[in-house]
Amino acid sequence: MFRTPTAYYLRRAAQGTVQLALPFVVVAVLWEGFAVFGPFPPRLFPRIEAIASAFVRLMVSGILPLHTLETLLRLAVGFLLGAVVGVTLGMLMGRYRWAEDLFVPLVSVGNPIPGLAYAPLFVLWFGLGNLPAVLLVGFSVTFPVVVNTWTGVKAVKPLWIRAAETMGASDRQLFRKVVLPGALPYVLTGLRLGLARAWRVVIAVEMLTSVSIGLGWLIFGAREFLNTDVMLAGIAVIGLVGLGLEKLVFERIERYTVVRWGMLQR
Amino acid sequence: MKRSAIGIIASFGVAALVWEAFARSGLFSSALSPSLAVIVPALIQMIVRGTIFVHVGYTLYRILWGLGLAALVGVPVGILMGRFKAVEGFVLPLVSVLSPIPSLAWVPVFILWFGLGDAASVALVFYAATFPIILNTWTGVRSVNRIWVRAAETMGAGAGDLFRKVVLPGSLPFVIAGLRQAFARSWIAVVGGEMIAATSWGLGWVIFDSKEFLRTDVMLSTLVIIGFLGLAFERFIFQAVERRTVARWGMVRTAGT
Question: Has residue B73 got a pLDDT over 90?
Fold first, then answer.
């Protein structure tokens, strides 16, 4: 049936592509149908050509990349802030009883409050713009990181700690060589959840604190002018970046660290 | 997470002291960081007047509609994905592309489509809640032990029985986990949505509206209420459901997390 292996693999690849493309094609057709025959005027529900051309236009003119870069920068700074605070606090809670007693009740009440709910308060405290946005992202990242780091430190097998102590490990060695690698899978889970949360928050907070550049702001601002095509193009970029963060950043970190150390099979 | 009552009181006591010190330090004016002597009466007043219950009611109404619709769509889709390869191949790419888009990014679009008010908020909650439910249900159905399915088939279970008595209970721990995750996300979506797609009621709206009048005491009271409501949902509703169903059937250990 297949004359050469190459032809076989080409055909397999083609089949895979078709299978992957099919759902998007169906959705696109439905979208077009709704845009043309649906109750919304094209201004509110643009056709795909309009969205695509807005996307290309904004990409070429550099507007979309600029906004994306700003948002990513804000995300990175806020995330790092939250990660450092969260890991430190979580480690303290895992190692010291007083820290645990002090922070666990606060974290359990603070965790279910959406970080976004603090946005108006942060705006009053820190003014509009970048500072409240970054702080809010950091704040929302802190909670999942704290909870997971704390769980992780507690989950380190006591046997390992005792073994290391018996072999004369100092406090610092114990921490660096036993507790840290032992807790790392949990810490990474926390960071991953934190990044997902940060990504959700950063977009929304940009709408609320009126930063001057950013994807959330781009979408929000476009509403004033009824530029639905720009809004949808912005949402498409947000989706792509979100997918990229998940696939490229975290799966890779996990491969290089915990999987390599044999802490986790993948 | 069992902690003595004394520990909990001490923890909140320390937090209250830190806040009080921060409020009186003059770092921010007292209008921006009110002392507890201002916040607590505001909280009590909101409760006595009953306004807070109306806000809570509106927020819960939006969440329950959105979450209910999401469960109604998400669970069947997840089950179909787990049972039929074709459905999985079709839905999975869409879900993996749509799910990383924060629901709040859709707010401006939803406002244009559905207008300000309840419909936009419900649509937002629906968007936020659907994907975790789909993904978890799908995982749950796939994780149902093969042997159970084969055993039931051997004993002559029909497709209906197989589904009702094996697949559904077998995947329930994941479905509940999905609902939990969906609730956490809806909670964020509804508060954010109410802030932006403002109507005139709802917890998110109160916070946002208080900013205009510099009522930081009302904002902070509402934040406290949001925190305790979220915690109550997690502790009382989800854990109770878990205990009544999957834990009683011996599917999971009573999850304390």
Answer: yes
CA distance B238 to B31: 38
Q: Is A100 exposed, middle or buried (0-12, 13-18, 19+ CB in 10 A)?
A: buried
> What is the C-alpha R_g of chain A?
24
- Name residues 76-105 of chain B within 8 A of A (Cβ): 89-91, 93-94, 96-98, 100-105
Mutate to test the interface with B, among A203, A224, A230 (most CBs of B within 10 A): A203
Contact list, B28 vs chain A (CB under 8 Å): 125
Nearest CB neighbour to A106, from listed B11, B207, B210: B11
pLDDT at B69: 95
Q: Kindly state the average pLDDT of the residues A6-34.
A: 82
3-state percent breakdown (helix, strand, coil) of chain B, nearest 5: 80, 0, 20
Nearest CB neighbour to A120, from listed B33, B91, B211: B211
Q: Amino acid letter at B91?
A: V
Residue A14 at interface with chain B, using a CB cutoff of 8 Å: no
- Alpha carbon distance B238, B250 (integer Å): 17
pLDDT at B248 (0 to 100): 67
pLDDT at B254 over 50: no
Closest Cα in chain B to A226? B112
CA–CA distance, B79 with B133 (Å, rounded to integer): 10
The chain A residue lying nearest B209, using CA atoms, is: A120
Greater pLDDT, A89 or B26: A89
* Cα-to-chain-centroid distance, residue B221: 20
Per-residue pLDDT for B256 more than 50?
no
Cα A65 to Cα A80: distance, rounded to the nearest angstrom:
22
User: Which amino acid, B221?
Assistant: S
The pTM (predicted TM-score) of the whole model is: 0.82
Residues of A in contact with B107 (CB under 8 A): 204, 207, 220
Place A266 in a pLDDT band, splitting at 50, 70 and 90. Answer: very low
